[in-house]
Write a structure and sequence with these properties.
This protein is an alpha/beta fold. Helix content is about 30%, strand content about 25%. The protein contains 14 helices and 24 strands. It binds uridine-diphosphate-N-acetylglucosamine. The site of uridine-diphosphate-N-acetylglucosamine has 22 residues, from helix 1, helix 5 and helix 6.
Length: about 450
């Protein structure tokens, strides 16, 4: 497994360009299964999860061409397999996004049930209950979810009330409803920008989706969908991570190719804490890390609230802010695994259940640490950038799942970070399966 070596203490200065959002790209790639025609997606980030999703599409019979590194042309004209196997679901939970499109177009789908994962149990019960509302019969067989549409092979429009806001659940149901008979209404739908991005693609394909981005989404089913071309929105979590990188190192960064309006809650919170942020134009932010940062409490919430995917990085920042901050995680259970690693670097954090208190300012010192999930790894990188001495982060495959060349982007703005490649002769005992997360 690769590691990162970081020598901290350098302020970051310069410009960084934000990649496409992996959490938007994954459902958009799955949406290509809804049509036999070609769906062309631009601005895909070059990260491990996109490679995994591509493998899934190819495994089930789709053809994926890559005329350019960040463009995929997906043609699902000949689907032969109607399932996402355990090997893929266990490495990437978003493989469950194959369910909705397969069920909608072919009337059947089988997806391995995602097990427990690093940030909590994360069931898919709400997806399944939603499919049942659209007339599907859903069974559990030997660890797999097997779903079937009614006899004529088509789902029926229906009313789905989500008991809890679920992002991939909303996406799965939205895709399933595009080819159903009649109208579907999704209540208490997730409002993340990625939902609106997916709806935009679906509508380009000929779907009739209204209200995406609000908590009520209406979908009028159509008989068939066609090909389309779409550019994935910028990654708001990568944007936030770089804002914090600028702030925590007391640097000066210009963050290009982003969408500041997608990060409004984060930007407001960081301003509260004393970070100077300016919107230079609709796609560029500048961040100046103030010498004096002030502790500010935060509670994670579904969009437009403060994103759970920024909680770990914010915690790293709070170790460098004067005073005590309380961080409450309401979206996922067990999402404080970075705290013990930050503590090993000298952070004063107490966590209990869904609440963590951080006492700042603490001088962090470099240490060997282990990344436990995607965003937790990002917080360790941020801590390493400001810590005195050398930090070695193990298991960076987690960060490779969702951040495109983070070490190269950080190095380009002055960070002392390098990747230590795993020796090909490493004993087998040192290699491990990546855990299914985010
Ligand atoms: C997505 C994002 C992830 C982000 C999360 C919350 C992708 C690929 N991943 O994950 O980066 O952290 O949104 O913003 O887009 N739940 C249930 N039953 C369900 C579904 C969800 O109880 O059927 C619960 C989950 O356990 C969790 C909460 O609802 O506590 C939110 O989960 P959800 O929004 O579904 O997260 P993901 O879509 O998996």
């Amino acid at each position: 497994m690769d590691k990162f070596r970081i020598i901290g203490g350098l302020p970051l200065k310069g410009r960084v360009s934000i990649s496409g959002a992996k959490i938007s790209a994954l459902p958009c790639m799955a949406a290509a299964v809804l049509t036999p025609e070609t769906v062309t997606l631009h601005n895909l980030p070059y990260v491990r999860d996109i490679i995994t999703q591509r493998r899934l599409l190819e495994d089930i019979g789709a053809t994926v061409l890559t005329p350019e590194l960040r463009t995929h042309k997906i043609a699902a004209a000949h689907i032969e397999l109607f399932e996402a196997p355990y090997e893929l679901v266990k490495t990437m939970r978003a493989s469950v996004l194959a369910l909705g499109p397969l069920l909608a177009r072919f009337g059947k789908a089988k997806v391995s049930l995602p097990g427990g994962c690093a940030i909590g149990t994360r069931p898919i019960d709400l997806h399944l209950a939603g499919f049942e509302k659209l007339g599907a019969e859903v069974r559990l067989e030997a660890g797999n979810v097997v779903a079937r549409a009614p006899k004529d092979g088509r789902l029926r429009g229906g009313e789905v009330h989500f008991g809890k806001v679920t992002v991939t659940g909303t996406e799965n149901l939205m895709m399933a409803a595009t080819l159903a008979w009649g109208r579907t209404t999704l209540y208490n739908a997730a409002r993340e920008p990625e939902i609106a991005d997916l709806a935009e693609l679906l509508n380009k394909m000929g779907a009739r989706v209204r209200g995406a981005g609000s908590s009520t989404i209406q979908i009028e089913g159509v008989a068939a969908l066609g090909g389309a071309e779409h550019t994935i929105i910028p990654d708001r979590i990568e944007t936030g991570t770089f804002i914090i990188a600028g702030a925590i190192t007391r640097g000066e960064l210009e963050i290009k190719d982003c969408r500041p309006e997608h990060s409004a809650a984060l930007i407001a919170k960081l301003r509260d804490a004393g970070v100077e942020l300016q919107e230079l134009n609709p796609s560029t932010l500048s961040v100046v890390g103030n010498l004096k940062l002030t502790a500010s409490d935060v509670t994670t919430e579904p969009h437009p609230g403060f994103p759970t995917d920024m909680q770990a990085q914010y915690m790293a920042l709070m170790t460098q802010a004067g005073g005590q901050s309380t961080i409450i995680e309401t979206v996922f259970e067990n999402r404080f695994m970075h705290t013990s690693e930050l503590q090993r670097m000298g952070a004063r954090i107490h966590s209990d259940g869904s609440r963590a208190t951080v006492q700042g300012v603490t001088k962090l010192t470099g240490a060997p640490v282990i990344a436990s999930d995607l965003r937790a790894s990002a917080s360790l990188v941020l801590a390493g950038l400001v810590a005195e001495g050398e930090t070695i982060i193990d298991r960076v495959y987690h960060i490779d799942r969702g951040y495109e060349k983070i070490e190269a982007k950080l190095r380009a703005v002055g960070a002392n970070i390098e990747r230590i490649r795993e020796s090909v002769t490493a004993p087998l005992s040192q290699t491990a399966e990546p855990a299914a997360i985010v």
